[in-house]
Design brief:
This protein is α+β, with helices and mostly antiparallel strands. The protein has two domains: 142 residues, Orthogonal Bundle (434 Repressor (Amino-terminal Domain)), CATH 1.10.260; 148 residues, Umud Fragment, subunit A (Ribbon), CATH 2.10.109. Helices cover 34% and strands 22% of the residues. It has 13 helices and eleven strands. The strands form two sheets. The chain has a nine-stranded mixed sheet with strand order 4-3-5-6-11-7-8-9-10. A hairpin with a 2-residue loop joins strand 7 and strand 8. Helix 5 crosses helix 6. The chain is elongated.
Length: 302
């Protein structure tokens, strides 16, 4: 059955196989534990889609390697198998249904393969695009949150733009790994609005000088801020108290109290020496689209 899948600004209409490639591409480049499970489903056609529709599939989910480099790595892999006696050109031609001359020309760099042809070779040789990527590229794009066996969970300290825009945090964007008691994090009540369930729930950011002083004394410059990205509702967490939020402002995080007035977000500082800011919400967007998450813990070094 054909069904539409919306990714970013582009809506694809395709069968389940294409949908699965999109979702698994996301998982694979975001979380290393999924690589072995799903790697055989990654296709060159999916990489082609990602390069053709860059707004639909974020660049953080795709490899910067060029197709020519991937083809060259495929050649090398095939030659390694031939030299080890695991494969012959004739057998590969039989497996793929290509003419032997076609395979020979590819192996000897006299011609390339189409995207469909490369997918066919990957399939019959039980390979994935990931097998052709440099390990350093995969590691840079992998989540580094390992499961913990003790009473603590790892929470990643990242820059504001990463916290504001990236559903899953890649290792190259991690500044530090901090520890929080699992029992403490489990007590946090979520309040989700919209499609936020797939986002990594807890991240930490660090307040710069202006942000810290605008919320003084609740914040200070350099304070570490735990953000619950599964709480993007304006509903008060505690009765009679204002929530502090990390807010997506121009692709970065600002920490403020938040109110709504028509199509505007009112960002109020705690420190009255700093001005109130007003953000106009884009058409079709609500407050939940701008709330990165509720501030649920502040760490201040003394």
């Amino acid at each position: 059955m054909v069904r539409p899948v919306k990714l970013g600004r582009i809506q694809f209409h395709g069968n389940f196989g294409v949908v699965r490639h999109v979702e698994i591409l996301r998982l694979t480049f975001s979380c290393v534990k999924y690589i072995i499970i799903v790697k055989n489903f990654i296709s060159f056609q999916m990489l082609y889609l990602s390069s053709t529709y860059p707004d639909a599939i974020g660049p953080c989910y795709t490899s910067p390697m060029k197709f020519k480099a991937l083809q060259e790595n495929l050649r090398k892999t095939l030659w390694d198998r031939i030299e080890e006696g695991e494969l012959t050109g004739i057998r590969l031609a039989q497996q793929t249904g290509f003419k032997q001359a076609h395979i020979s020309n590819f192996l000897n760099r006299k011609r390339g393969l189409s995207l469909e042809g490369m997918d066919k070779v990957l399939n019959v040789q039980h390979l994935s695009v990931l097998d052709l990527l440099e390990p350093t590229e995969v590691n840079k794009r992998a989540s580094i949150l390992p499961p913990t066996d003790d009473e603590f969970d790892n929470v990643l300290l990242v820059d504001g733009p990463v916290a504001a825009t990236e559903p899953l945090v890649m290792s190259m964007n991690v500044r530090e790994i901090l520890k929080f008691k699992k029992s403490f994090l489990r007590k946090m009540k979520p309040e989700l609005e919209g499609d936020r369930e797939t986002w990594e729930r807890f991240v930490m950011i660090r307040a710069d000088g202006r942000e810290g002083m605008s919320m003084y004394p609740r914040l200070l410059p350099g304070a570490t801020i735990l953000v619950d990205r599964h709480y993007n509702s304006l509903k008060p967490y505690r009765k009679g108290e204002f929530n502090m939020y990390a807010v997506n402002k121009d692709g970065d995080c600002t920490v403020k109290y938040v109110e709504v007035a028509g199509q505007h977000l009112i960002l109020r500082p705690h420190n009255q020496a700093y001005p109130i800011e007003v953000m106009t919400m884009e058409e079709g967007m609500g407050a939940a689209d701008y709330l990165v998450g509720r501030v649920c813990y502040v760490g201040i070094e003394t």
